[in-house]
Amino acid sequence: MDKNEFRTRYSLHRLSDVIPSAPVKMPSRKAAVLIPLIEKNQQLHILLTQRPMHLRSHPGQISFPGGKTEQGDKDDIATALREAHEEIGLASSNVEVLGQFPTHKTFTGFDVTPVVGIIERPFKLVIDPGEVQDCFTVPLQYFIQQENRHQKRFMRNGKEYTVYLMPFEDRFIWGVTAAIIDLLCRHISLDNVANIQTSR
């Protein structure tokens, strides 16, 4: 799938369902992440980062560029773009923002808003070692294939919730990042597009 096809599928409909959030009732802090899509050989890839092991929150996990909302951020898009620039050197002027998805509540007390953006030009990675250990890409088509997206049900404090799991090569993507990827894939799926076309 190239950039043009992705834009078309993304814009065809509004998302009707939300990401299953963590069943928690605690004060939350606002955060936003960027879902950065970059085209390679006419195929879109999702750019992901791996967090360093020294971090107190989610050490070693695969994530999107992003973080907590700061006072100077005018909205969720500004937060996601600022964090992407700080973490991997991606300039906001190099991102075509397509929109954002519903907020996801996490067990660690964050309300995370995913922002969808296409990287317009190749750029030089400038990794902040305090926030990012590694940066890599995965073909979007890999995630679109349903057999590569897994779900498991777990109990926590007497409540059942869903955890998303997506192994890729020697990496293991799970939690909020995997839930957001699943949401993105469902949003642009051919089934959704076909349903909209037949209902018109």
From TrEMBL:
Gene Ontology molecular function: coenzyme A diphosphatase activity; metal ion binding
Database matches in InterPro entries: CoAse, NUDIX_hydrolase-like_dom_sf, NUDIX_hydrolase_dom
Requisite cofactors: Mg(2+); Mn(2+)
Name listed for the protein in its UniProt record: NUDIX hydrolase
Family matches, as PROSITE patterns: NUDIX (PS51462)
Keyword Manganese: yes
Stretches assigned to the Nudix hydrolase domain: 28-160
Annotated Pfam families: NUDIX
Native source organism of the sequence: Shewanella denitrificans (strain OS217 / ATCC BAA-1090 / DSM 15013)
Keyword Lipoprotein belongs to the record: no
SUPFAM superfamilies assigned to the protein according to its UniProt record, in alphabetical order: Nudix (SSF55811)
Gene3D superfamilies: Nucleoside Triphosphate Pyrophosphohydrolase
Keywords assigned by UniProt, alphabetized: Hydrolase, Magnesium, Manganese, Metal-binding
Lineage: Bacteria, Pseudomonadati, Pseudomonadota, Gammaproteobacteria, Alteromonadales
